[in-house]
Every structure is written in C-alpha cells, then in structure tokens.
Design goal:
Blueprint (H helix, E strand, L loop, with lengths): L4 H8 L8 E3 L5 E3 L7 E7 L4 H17 L4 E7 L3 H10 L6 E3 L2 H6 L8 E5 L5 E6 L4 H11 L3
Parallel strand pairs: 3-4, 4-5
Antiparallel strand pairs: 1-2, 3-6, 6-7
C-alpha cells in the first residue's frame, strides 16, 4: 500500500479541536469527545446576532440530511440560557445546542465575532474556521469534501 507522505504530513499538522464539557439547553453535559468519529460543524452564535439567526435554518436542514452520514452540528450559544432555550424551541433546532462559556471561547482562540464556525474532520482536527455568515451550500460543499463525495 502506498501512502502519500505529503498528504499525511499535512493532515498530521492540522490542529486538534479542544475538548469541552458544556451544559445543553436541556441540562445534559455534552462533550465534543461524545461525537468521536463524526464530522462536526461547531457553531459559536447568539440569539441577538442576525447573521447567526440566518444560518440556523440551513443548519437544521443540513442536520436532517447529514446526521445519518456521520455528521453532527453543535451550536455553542454565547448568550443568556433562557433566551437560548426559547430560541431553540421557537426555531425547532434539531441539533445539540450548548451554553458556551468564556473559557471555551478562549480555548478556540478567542471568538472575536459571531457567528464563528469550525468544521472538524472525523478525528476532530480543525479543517476550517469561518468568521461571519456563510450560505447553506457553502457548508454542504465542505461536508461533501470531508465525506469524500
């Protein structure tokens, strides 16, 4: 079996996403490591952020289409817990939404603007960091690349 040494070296150099333990809106503790082996879209957002609100319906559709293909979306809300709970109910968010902390935001390099979204491969290496709104099709293309489509 031939190994592409250059590609392997490139992959080995990608930073691993820091693990975390955060409460979900339903009160469970969720860790990134709970999703071992899954491709992850990790979205830092807030209820008051218009671009964040615009992305969420697309994330709901993406999660419906990709959850059985080894993909999970995790929303990390940088907002007041009650506002987040109400928002997730009103918008019928179907993926895990966690209550973020300053400490977790710092682990991810300090979140300077939201939305800030990380795309992680199955080994939870950070493949892409996106600051600001992106289209649903952008995220679908990125997922398809990681899933080998």
């Amino acid at each position: 079996m031939r190994v592409n040494v250059a590609a392997f070296a490139l992959l080995a150099g990608l930073p691993k996403a820091p693990d975390f333990a955060l409460p979900s809106v339903s009160g469970d503790t969720v860790r990134l490591s709970d999703f071992s082996g899954k491709v992850v879209i990790l979205d830092f957002w807030a209820t008051w952020c218009n671009p964040c609100r615009q992305e969420i319906p697309g994330f709901i559709r993406i999660y419906n289409d990709y959850k059985d293909k080894g993909v999970v979306i995790i929303g990390i809300a940088l907002d007041e817990p009650e506002k987040v709970r109400k928002f997730t109910e009103d918008y019928r968010v179907n993926y895990p939404v966690l209550l973020g902390t300053r400490e977790v935001a710092q682990k991810y390099g300090g979140i300077m603007g939201i939305p800030t979204t990380f795309i992680l491969d199955r080994e939870h290496r950070i493949r892409k960091k996106v600051v600001g709104w992106r289209s649903e099709s952008f995220f679908r293309q990125e997922l398809d690349k990681l899933l080998g489509k």
